Fold this sequence. Notes:
The protein is an alpha/beta fold. The chain has helices spanning about 1-20, 160-195, 220-235, 250-275, 285-305, 310-320, 325-350, and strands at about 25-30, 45-50, 70, 80-105, 110-130, 135-150, 200-205. It has a five-stranded mixed β-sheet. A two-stranded antiparallel sheet has the order 1-7.
Amino acid sequence: MKKTILLLLFLPFVSLLNAQRPSAKQIAIPYLQYPSSPLNANIETYFSKIINRSTAVYAANSKLMLEGYQEVDYLDSADLEIKFIINAVSFSSYIKKEAFNKKINDSTYVKAVGGRYVVEARMNYSEFVNDIKNGSALVSNEGVIKFSTFNSGLIKSYNEAVKLHNNNRDRHAFNLYGNMIYFSINKFNNALNSTYGFPLRTYYMAFVRGKGRKFNYSDLNKAYNDFKSVSENISKAFRKDGHSRYGDFRTDDEQSNFLKLDSCIKIWENAIQEYAPNKRKTRIGDKIIDYLYLNLAAAHLMNAYSKDNWDDVYENLSKVKLNKSEINKANSFESKVIDIQKRVNAFKRRG
């Protein structure tokens, strides 16, 4: 009887080993994000400057960069001027008493008074983007105000809170200044590139490899490795400072990428033809099929830039229908693709 029970318990385990499993792992999908508001076609160079009119100290390596355009050292030779100005910084601080229950032992508490101190910092800055070539102001945000606060938390001695406040308030204020400046410069730079630039972005997706003793998934593993190789090659082409707008690819690298993408597409399409719904012991079943359509959509997206065929992306995403998690991933990816296509079309309309 015991042997029978053990055998019955073991059989589902064997069944799981033989059943197909996704064994999906994420790969970064690199894509060139086109501008939402393309600049005039005669804009090729830019000059950027961060001007500090305050007493704050900020990271010296903070920089404004417009991806896809050439930076020049002098305003006289620039088509576009980008400026971030730190107008002023200031802070105020205060200490307040705060009552709390002071523990004497496990069952006894007494009322006591401690304190906390607060440092409130304020920053005034301006952002400008001027189209020198065509004589127009694209961005003019003057006197933007940002606040940031440090709170010490409860200090169980009011006198100690006073001492810490007097000794540390200037340091906290300067830390707040630095953080606000860093955040504001990066926010401005990200907005610049979203509106006018050509930054390389990444979208992460799980790519199926398949797993199980009974079936051979070497084809899916090959597709996974090929797509990962394409992803790494594209990222590498944009890694060097001063790279061209569309990446520094060698001719043989581009050809290799296209061949690998085509191979991935064929492998995933062939695997889909094997799909056997509602069947556990099968190579391509319900647990894998949604991933295959997602992966096909990703491969077609990377081809869409050159082939201008977006329908294949949307068609494959529309076929993700079984698993709620993958359906949500398809919806999220579709929203990203719609934004990418809208930006590409806006740039093409500009001529």
